[in-house]
Specification:
It is a single chain. The protein has 8 helices and no strands. With 250 residues, the chain is mainly α. Helix 3 packs antiparallel against helix 4. The longest helix has 35 residues. The protein is globular and about 80 Å long.
Length: 250
């Protein structure tokens, strides 16, 4: 038998999602049946995006596929955002109570239903094969998108609210409570942005304003993260000061 040392695979531990978070204890141990169902629905949603892309039989058909590629990327990215939020929730809290299951089913229903409307909407915005031909139709597109996206974020907010409501039973630390509030703030920002876009679609504004309004998400999400990040740092400093005081008194 060779005495050659086994190769180190430390690089694997640096992959995203490989190790638990530094300041949040993962209570979800292993992949539950609920997560398996969600993974299957998200995978099927991505499959629907691919199936919706017809195989071109001419040069014009090929160019139509190329033009629709940005819309495909946008839909795929949005689905991955939702999957990542879903993954983080179940890893952090490991909840599988009735409320969590029902809200999870509603999220999966909206995600599955939204695949084709999202593809149409992004094609309309990003210059694909589909499009709208009148301003009333364009404003209706904004409202449909805002209601669908805002509805999914609102359901995620209910999941995080349920976890926050059970913080004592889950044994959340002060830092974990703050991070849960950060996620609730992120959901509020997303829902508020969707609502703002819908309101703008009813006002006499430039046709692109309701869509461009989503660009404010970058600033508002940064402000939300900065505010709660400072709260986390303050709590860590307080805990560090308490430990130092105990050591000095020992």
């Amino acid at each position: 038998m060779s005495n050659r040392p086994r190769p180190s695979h430390a690089w694997r531990d640096k992959l995203p999602g490989r190790k638990p978070e530094a300041y949040f204890r993962w209570r979800g141990q292993g992949v539950s049946r609920l997560e398996n169902l969600a993974d299957g629905v998200f995978a099927f949603s991505v499959t629907l995006l691919v199936v919706a892309q017809q195989v071109p039989t001419s040069f014009d058909g090929l160019m139509a596929v190329v033009r629709s590629f940005p819309a495909f990327v946008a839909c795929f990215a949005l689905l991955m955002v939702f999957w990542n939020v879903h993954y983080k929730f179940f890893r952090r809290y490991g909840l599988e109570d009735m409320f969590t299951r029902v809200v999870n089913y509603a999220i999966l229903l909206l995600v599955l239903f939204s695949v084709y409307p999202l593809k149409f909407l992004f094609n309309s915005w990003l210059g694909g094969s589909a499009g709208v031909t009148s301003l009333p139709d364009l404003f209706l597109v904004y409202r449909i998108y805002g209601l669908g996206l805002g509805g999914i974020w609102l359901l995620f907010g209910l999941l995080f609210w349920n976890a926050y409501r059970q913080r004592e039973r889950l044994g959340l630390s002060p830092v974990e409570v703050i991070l849960t509030k950060l996620d609730l703030g992120s959901v509020t920002v997303n829902v508020g942005t969707c609502a703002g876009s819908i309101v703008l679609s009813f006002l006499p504004v430039h046709p692109w304003v309701p869509g461009v309004f989503y660009g404010t998400l970058g600033i508002s999400m940064w402000l939300n993260g900065t505010f709660w990040g400072r709260q986390v740092q303050a709590e860590l400093d307080r805990q560090r000061g308490s430990r130092d005081a105990r050591y000095s008194n020992a």
